[in-house]
Amino acid sequence: MKHKLVLLALFATCLSFTACEEDKDSYDFSESMPAYVEIKSKTALTVEEGATATVTFQSREAFQQAKTLTYEIAGAYNATGTVVLPRNTLSTALTFTVPTGVVPAGSETAVASLSLTDADGLSVGRKGADKEVVTINITKK
Questions:
Q1: Which domains are assigned to the chain?
Q2: What is the structure's pLDDT at 34?
Q3: Do residues 53 and 136 lie in contact, with contact meaning Cβ atoms separated by under 8 Å?
Q4: Which terminus of the chain is less hemmed in, N or C, by CB atoms within 10 Å?
Q5: Does the structure show a pLDDT above 70 at 18?
Q6: Whole-angstrom Cα distance, residue 62 to residue 94?
Q7: What does residue 124 show for φ and ψ, rounded to 5 degrees?
Q8: 73: which residues sit within 8 A by CB, 6+ positions away?
């Protein structure tokens, strides 16, 4: 009788380890969003000549390595540079100074655009947007 119980328990164990006909663990990740960096607020900035402005870059996830972000300012004046998104952080701030003399004589304002152009191997913007842009409205001092 004891052998029959052991065989029955062994048989039940073997049945519990058999595979199911339908594979329910095949998840499709082809539509998942890649890691990206974006400009936190794309609201236009109004900055006086000679003053500083701040733009924040953010990611939805922290990375184990620092990422070097490349930006470009074009329009009333031109500049390029980099800012580092430190490891294990979700955002970093870029503070830049608008040079004096960029508003033409006879005008009260000039316009430039700050673009995020490269994100150190990450996508720029959500779903691979080419550029993240914020407008800079520059006023006379």
A1: 36-139 (2.60.40.2030)
A2: 83
A3: yes
A4: N
A5: no
A6: 18
A7: -95, 115
A8: 79, 80, 96, 112, 113, 114, 115, 136
